[in-house]
Structure formats: structure tokens, C-alpha cells
């Protein structure tokens, strides 16, 4: 049986972190090692140039290079990347064209602060989409507020602009359900962990969430158990995801970077372009969590 196009874009999207040298310049060599490691986690997709990548802190040239390197190392996965981070529409249109030329398999558009302006948002996304031949997804990126959209707005984006999916960040079961009930032939992709299992029971079939940046295998195990109908195992895997989510919650994304380092990517330093650092206590907590995961066969 031929699969619907959106079926190919369901599943687990591992978010890509950006490694830095001590001077906060991008460490592209470590990024390539990290991309290979992410593929080895067994996920279907990689999300380059996302919030966890610190896309708002990266230049356009840095974003394009990271997307290109992700494509270079994607293996059997598909790669999507955000393509409307520039300030004005003309610059964003050029960004869409250049990001599409990197070889990514899909383009992601943020709601760009238009979450409460439905007509304006639909017109805006339509203009951007006309500049790429690639599948397009939406992202309620909290970096440009108001960012959340209603199920009705999402339904219009699907019907009028051909949107294939959305990274939902409402963090409420009501917001998630609103989109699920009006998604049409698209996929609602989860970013919220407390309601992940319930959202899957209600029809969600995708994940784009911060813990995938350092633990994609956790999600792939959950996804496979859920699709097999083994709800007891799926619930166990979900509980493991919650533990991972809690482990990295304080100090993200430095916390996730440190867990990646503990799993073998030595160049992934727990630093970002912000002012935050991890205390000795947080580092010890993450080492203890990693040790527990290794002892229980959840990490290497």
C-alpha cells in the first residue's frame, strides 16, 4: 500500500545541539561527530537549526552550514531546518531559498509572533512557502511571541498552505487536542513531555522535544512499543523519558550537551552563547543520572 506523504514525516525528530569552542565559535568538527551519533540513536528524522540549536543566536551563514553538515551526515534519516529567522520578509525569502538549497528534506517556519493574527499568519506562510519546493512544517517557537496558534488557524495552514505538520508547544492537553481534532492530512508533533503519552493516545504520531537532543533512543523505544500496541512497555518507556526530561530541565541546553559528552562526544562542551553555566552539583547530578542509565541499559 502506498503511504501518504505525511506518514513519512511522522516519528521521532532529534533536535540538534550546537557545540562551541571556549570562545563561543561553532565547533563544526564536533558537530559532525554529534550528527553521526544522533543518527546512531535510531531516529527517523533530525531537526537542524531549531530552538535547541540556539538558532536565534546563530548567524545566517552558521545556520546554513549546520544544516548542510546535518545533511552530509544524515544517513537514512530525513533532515528539516528552520528557514525564517531573518528580520524582514525579503531577507526571509532569500533565507528560504538558500536553506532549501542545502539539501534538507523539509523546511520549518516559525509563527514569527503572529500567533494571534490568523489572516496575517496564513498570508505570510503562503508567501514563504511559494519560495520552496520542499515540504513545510510549522513551529510555535517561543522566541517570537505570541507564538501559539489555535486549531482553527492550524487547519487553515494545512488546507490553504499545504503544511504537513506542526511542532506544538502549547504544553496543554487542550491545545494539543485542539490541533489533533483539526489536523486533516497532517501530523501534530509533540514538544511537551508530561502529556506525550496522552497525546499519542489521542492521535499524535511525532516528537520534536528537547530531550531528543541527548536521548533520541529513549523516544524511539517508546515509539516502537506504542506502534506495536504494547501499552505496558510503552508506558515504561514513557516513564524513562520523563526521567530524562527532568534530568536536563535545569540548565538546558548545557545539561543536554554534558549528557552527550558523557555518551562519548568529547568535544560537546556544556557551554552555550548565553551566560548560564552548570554548577559542580549539577554536573555531578548528570553524571549520576548517566551512570544509572548505563547500568539499566538505556545509555552507553
The total tally of domains equals 1
| CATH fold call | TIM Barrel
Q: Can you name the CATH architecture?
A: Alpha-Beta Barrel
Mean pLDDT figure? 96
Q: If helices are DSSP runs of H or I spanning 4 or more residues, what is the number of helices?
A: 11
- The CATH class assignment is Alpha Beta
Task: Count all strands and give the number.
Answer: 8
User: What is the ordering of alpha helices and beta strands?
Assistant: EHEHEHEHEHEHEHEHHHH
Which radius of gyration do the C-alpha atoms yield?
18 Å
Class of secondary structure makeup: alpha/beta
Report the span from N to C terminus: 38 Å
| Sheet with the most strands, sense and barrel status | 8 strands, parallel, barrel
What is the quaternary state of this protein?
single chain
Q: CATH superfamily assignment? A: Aldolase class I
Helix proportion: 40-55%
Question: Looking at the structure, what is the overall shape?
Answer: globular
Strand content range: 5-15%
Strand order of the largest sheet: 1-2-3-4-5-6-7-8
Question: Which regions have little confidence, pLDDT < 50, spanning 5+ residues?
Answer: 1-5
Amino acid at each position: 500500500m502506498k503511504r501518504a506523504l505525511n506518514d513519512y514525516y511522522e516519528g521521532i525528530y532529534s533536535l540538534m545541539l550546537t557545540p562551541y569552542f571556549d570562545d563561543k565559535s561553532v565547533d563544526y568538527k564536533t558537530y559532525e561527530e554529534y550528527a553521526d551519533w544522533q543518527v546512531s540513536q535510531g531516529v527517523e528524522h533530525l531537526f537542524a537549526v531549531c530552538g535547541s540549536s540556539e538558532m536565534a543566536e546563530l548567524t545566517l551563514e552558521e545556520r546554513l552550514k549546520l544544516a548542510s553538515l546535518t545533511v552530509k551526515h544524515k544517513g537514512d534519516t530525513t533532515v528539516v531546518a528552520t528557514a525564517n529567522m531573518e528580520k524582514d520578509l525579503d531577507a526571509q525569502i532569500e533565507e528560504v531559498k538558500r536553506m532549501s538549497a542545502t539539501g534538507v528534506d523539509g523546511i520549518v517556519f516559525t509563527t514569527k509572533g503572529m500567533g494571534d493574527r490568523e489572516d496575517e499568519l496564513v498570508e505570510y506562510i503562503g508567501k514563504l512557502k511559494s519560495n520552496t519546493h520542499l515540504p513545510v512544517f510549522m513551529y510555535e517557537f517561543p522566541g517570537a511571541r505570541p507564538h501559539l496558534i489555535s486549531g482553527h488557524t492550524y487547519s487553515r495552514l494545512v488546507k490553504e498552505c499545504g503544511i504537513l505538520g506542526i511542532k506544538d508547544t502549547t504544553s496543554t492537553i487542550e491545545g494539543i487536542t485542539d490541533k489533533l481534532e483539526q489536523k486533516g492530512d497532517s501530523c501534530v508533533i509533540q514538544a511537551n513531555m508530561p502529556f506525550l503519552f496522552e497525546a499519542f493516545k489521542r492521535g499524535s504520531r511525532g516528537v520534536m522535544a528537547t530531550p531528543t537532543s541527548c536521548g533520541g533512543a529513549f523516544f524511539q523505544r517508546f515509539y516502537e512499543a506504542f506502534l506495536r500496541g504494547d501499552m505496558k512497555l510503552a508506558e515504561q518507556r514513557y516513564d524513562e523519558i520523563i526521567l530524562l526530561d527532568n534530568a536536563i530541565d535545569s540548565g538546558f541546553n548545557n545539561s543536554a550537551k554534558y549528557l552527550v559528552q558523557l555518551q562519548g562526544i568529547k568535544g560537546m562542551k556544556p557551554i552555550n552563547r548565553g551566560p548560564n553555566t552548570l554548577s559542580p552539583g549539577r554536573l555531578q547530578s548528570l553524571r549520576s543520572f548517566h551512570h544509572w542509565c548505563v547500568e539499566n541499559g538505556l545509555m552507553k
